[in-house]
Amino acid sequence: MFPLNDNGMVSGLLCGILFGYVLENAGFGSPVKLSAQFKLTDWAVFKVMFTAIVVAAIGLWLMRLGGMLKPDSIAVPQAALASAAVGGALVGAGFAVGGYCPGTSVAGLFSGRLDALVFVVGVVLGTIGFAVFYGAALKSLKAAWLIAEGDTFTDAYAIPEPVMLGILGLALIAVFNFGSWFERRGSGTITAQQAVEGAR
Amino acid sequence: MNTSDKQTNPQIRPFWPPVVAGFALGLVLLLTFVLSGHGLGASGAATDLVAGVGLQVAPEAIKANSYLGPMVADGSPMGSWLSWEIVGVAIGALAGAFMAGRFRVQLDGARSVGTPKRLITTLAGGFLSGFGARIAGGCTSSMGLAGAAALGVSAFVFLALFFATGLIVSRLVKGV
Which end of chain B is more exposed for a tag (fewer CB within 10 A), N or C? Predict the structure, then answer.
């Protein structure tokens, strides 16, 4: 019965190596490729993310249906919506300005990008900054707009899981169609050649 | 290294198509859930690093800090699952880049916006990202990706604001 709840070194290394390998092969070590998402000229970020979300969500659902996965055994982020909104906005701003997010900056650094190293330093400084300023204001932000009923759509709004998966599937189709339409109108997606040559 | 704009370098292999990369990422995420009980992450490794190094350098300050203190109550968080996962991300990305001829040491963005500006945009971007991830309790990986796959409400709020703010800010600042 899964999950194994294995939080050891080998489990971490294995998942990380696969994660890093896929990120790099998707082109997500390149800040040119990543920031092109917000210029709407290359939709790889959302195409890859939405595909992954749907694949993993369906996989988890099927495993629960088949009795291979214990119900309510998977970590879900707390439905603290104010902090999710403010944090999402800041990570989005950081992505637009710096060209990375925390995970992709590691992929960027290990495909040779020194600007990604500076981004990593920024992430560490931002973390220290948060710890220094962590007080009444940040605590109340984290506690604001909290859904007491539960963290998932099923628990919070009584939306059945298959319905949510259907909505996500439709969103995935929309992201691919909408994104490809934008890509055809724009200057083309960022190729590996262009990414390796760097921003110009 | 070839400097011509148009010339293609056969040593540089193309990226995977988004549908292939997305499917692979989904399977990796599913494997992670099945093995560990939680999803992939990234920014939390920076927290573990700050708390762990801080515990060596300034133990009293770390223990007294209201955010980091509780995290070091049971000892250093260095060596956590997440810190090993990030070491793995580094290895995996390095392998991917090398195997496809895409490893190149460079300050990406230096040519487009200039070295001084690029250093500032990437440092500022990292700071915003690190600070924001601690507010949300996760970054694009753990909140946006893993949280959404677990059908968490906050993940979709995070993604919506991530996208909206990124769209606006990328029109105001050219960072790369």
Answer: N
